[in-house]
Amino acid sequence: MNKISNYIQGNWIDGDGEELTAYNAINGDAIGVVSSEGLDYKGMLDYARNVGGPALRKMTFQERGRMLKALALHLTERKEKFYALSAATGATRVDSWIDIEGGIGNLFAYASLRKQFPDLPYAVEGDVVPLSKGGSFIGHHILVPKRGVAVHINAFNFPIWGMLEKIAVNLLAGVPAVVKPSELTSYLTELMVREIVESGILPAGSLQLVSGLGRGIIDHVTNQDVVTFTGSAATGMKLKTLPHIVANSVPFNLEADSLNASMLGEDAAPGTPEFDLFIKATRAEITVKAGQKCTAIRRIIVPEKYMEDVQIALGKQLQKTVMGDPSVEGVRMGALAAKVQVERVRKSVESLMEEQEIVYGNLDDFEVTGADKSKGAFFSPILFRNDDPFTKTKVHEIEAFGPVSTLLPYKDMDEAIRITEMGRGSLVTSIVTADDALAKEFTLNTAHLHGRILILNERCAKESTGHGSPMPLLSHGGPGRAGGGEEMGGVRGVKHYMQRTAIQGHPETITRITEQFQVGADQPEANPHVFRQHFEELRVGDTVFTHKHTVTDADIVNFANVSGDNFYAHMDVTSLEGTIFEQRVAHGYFLLSKAAGLFVDPKKGPVLLNYGVEQARFTKPVYSGATVGVRFTVKEKIDQEKRSEDDIAKGIVKFLVDMYDETGETVAIATILTMVKKLDQS
Ligand code: NAP
In ligand 1, which atom is closest to the CA atom of 485? Predict the structure, then answer.
């Protein structure tokens, strides 16, 4: 029989024996056998630490980001291969899209995120902290990649997204990964890892795969490693509290199941667009991926007076959802990922049935189109109704990980909030309302228990990404029962794989470590002028000291004429009583413009363009008669890739513009962004 292999220390290895045979969820055909028995987990982690880690840490954020982009493009070209195999998990094309293209989308998103990091293997965080009167001693923070491995243990429902949403983040941070998908669906993860390995895009040691059970995979982790777990709360808690995980302070990110809710606002009466949106969104959350989404709506919170309407409308929608083999025209809902899941969901439903009534669907009596019901892992959508959510509380405890959800009534906002709270922390909650005051009240009273809140109404519905989709650059996770973890989240997520270290010293030392100019560091005079130097020739700290200019009334009036900014403080000297100004004050924008007039060396040279200003501040009023000059300093350099062969080779240079007056005090400060040619283009 076909073997589903593990990718360990640069080789494809079949485990000893046969732990599990994976089956096609639609027709029951065997796909292959998988095993991780006999794998050397310690060797695997050491290989990642000794081979993958150093290679990734040599690369800058920019290089790692470009690597992710190349990988995303490579996988996109091959996506149909993944769709073909994904069908075996019981997924429809839409379900597979979430897993495959949603996963690849994460790689693209984190590739672009490189632009928010420096051109270094490590990052500098936040602002400088002054620690001395004389300015010779300052503090800052740096973030360095952990010198360990990210061990990702994933649930069966997203064999591709589950891997990519996590490795996108640790690879950008410069940390290698070991991925353990659930063995129920690891055949699909294996296919993707084969494509990744064959591409040669990732350095050796940066990705390994355990396709089998992987018991023992975290036995050898240390404090430099990060374990992430996605799955049931029960397994997660068991692993998180293993004695060596606790004793070694191993970072452990837990993403567990949660009893997500969606609330219909009182304003969204039957007949309103919001009512229809609510029904549509709820139906989708029950049927997409056959309800096997950690974010799916399990509790449908409805104004008491609309319970009947919602029940009827939702029932009609579910009736229209044809279940069966997704390759057959018209089928909208596939199967659960494996037969063992049918048993698990059934057990949960039976337990819920002890307290609440099924108002749509039947455990045994349902139709399947284009497939043999007895061979596939099919499960009917089940809609429960529980009119007494404060005393019949299993609905707030049991997650049936399938197409199962419960209608719950509320009388007023206070009750609705209490019902959401009874889930004890969840990944996502939504409210469907056109009333922004109501949305605000609900959001501010429930945010403490939710990782994400979607507020849906007609104005945003068309472009809304929906209740169920965690977005790559937003945090995903939730407090309490949801595990207390946080993943993705853009820059925040990358920091989970890095050590934050406070550094203290002289500004010159801190400048050399951070490769960002810090005020108080050496400012050697640039020679020639910085605008005459190419990207490679510029050195952080090099400074142009400009000529001086004495500001006149004519400057201020002329600037007001040119810009049309006739604000009273610039134009009406009789109006200054009761203001902080003593005289007619120069426009801040005039000072910045004049600064450019002073620091620019106008002849054509390596500087291609100025594309923005950051962190501009006008720190002291400048009156007519003041004499100003500029210290113009190379602050930071960021290499850039060529977009195409004939693109100009260039990099980004940030300059600090420090304008000061005759007393030496800074009057305006800003960072300007320029693009500067590289030497080989001159
Ligand atoms: P699970 O049974 O808890 O398993 C999760 C993962 O842990 C699987 O890969 C499993 O491997 C592995 N595992 C179990 N025991 C282990 C051990 N001793 N050592 C190492 N690994 C171990 O969960 P599941 O049934 O796969 O997934 C469904 C659950 O995941 C649902 O409750 C759902 O809500 C939750 N989920 C949460 C999120 C989220 O982001 N919060 C996302 C998706 C799913 P094997 O399967 O190979 O045994």
Answer: 41
Domains of the chain, with CATH numbers? 3-135+147-255+492-498 (3.40.605.10), 261-472 (3.40.309.10), 503-677 (3.10.129.10)
Active-site annotation, residues? 255, 294
341 CA closest ligand 1 atom index: 25
Question: For the whole model, what pTM was predicted?
Answer: 0.92
Query: Cα separation of 648 and 467, whole Å?
Result: 43
pLDDT digits (tens, 9 = 90+) for 658-679: 999 999 999 999 999 999 999 9
Q: Which atom from ligand 1 is nearest to the alpha carbon of 399?
A: 32
Under 8 Å between Cβ of 89 and 25: yes
Q: Which of 251, 169, 211, 203 is nearest to 58 (CA)?
A: 203
CA-to-CA distance for 455 and 546, rounded, in angstroms? 53
CB 606 within 8 A of CB 682: yes
Task: Output b/e per residue, 290-307; b: 16+ Cβ within 10 A.
Answer: bbbbbbbbbbbbbbeebb
Which residue's alpha carbon is at the smallest distance from atom 22 of ligand 1?
Answer: 215
Q: Which atom number of ligand 1 is nearest to the Cα of residue 476? A: 40
User: Is any atom of ligand 1 closer than 6 Å to the C-beta of 180?
Assistant: yes
Distance 508 CA to ligand 1 centre (A): 50
- Give the separation between CA 51 and CA 448, rounded to whole angstroms: 42
Ligand 1 neighbour 401 (Cβ under 6 A): yes
CA of 237 to the centre of ligand 1 (A): 11
The CA 532 to ligand 1 mean position distance, Å, reads 59
The residue whose CA is least distant from atom 35 of ligand 1 is: 231
Count other C-beta atoms under 10 Å from residue 100's C-beta.
28
Q: Which of 547, 545, 546, 542 is nearest to 654 (CA)?
A: 542
Q: What is the pLDDT of residue 646?
A: 87
Please report where in the chains the tokens 């039976």 appear, as a residue.
350
Q: Is 474 exposed, middle or buried (0-12, 13-18, 19+ CB in 10 A)?
A: middle
| Ligand 1 and 259: CB distance under 6 A | no
Q: Which of 41, 165, 230, 398 to mutate for ligand 1's pocket (most ligand atoms within 8 Å of CB)?
A: 230
- The encoded tokens of residue 453 equal 């809140």
Bridge partners, 656 (sequence order) = 633, 671
* Ligand 1 atom showing the smallest separation from residue 184 Cα: 46
- In whole angstroms, give the CA distance from residue 406 to residue 675: 57
Find out whether the beta carbon of 257 lies less than 6 Å from any atom of ligand 1.
yes
Name the burial class of residue 475, with classes exposed (0-12), middle (13-18) and buried (19+) by CB atoms within 10 angstroms of its CB: middle
Among 52, 16, 49, 46, which Cα is nearest to 34's? 16
Considering only CA atoms, which residue is closest to atom 20 of ligand 1? Answer: 215
pLDDT score, position 638: 92
Does ligand 1 have an atom closer than 6 angstroms to the CB of 122? no
Token pair belonging to 571: 């134009």
Residue 232 Cβ < 6 Å to ligand 1: yes
Residue-level pLDDT at 681: 57
Q: Report, as ranges of residue numbers, the positions in the chain whose pLDDT lies below 50.
A: 682
pLDDT at residue 644, as a whole number: 87
Torsion of CA 153, 155, 157, 160, to 10 degrees: 0
Nearest to 181 by CA among 1, 7, 394, 369: 7
Read off φ and ψ for residue 566, nearest 5 degrees: -105, 35
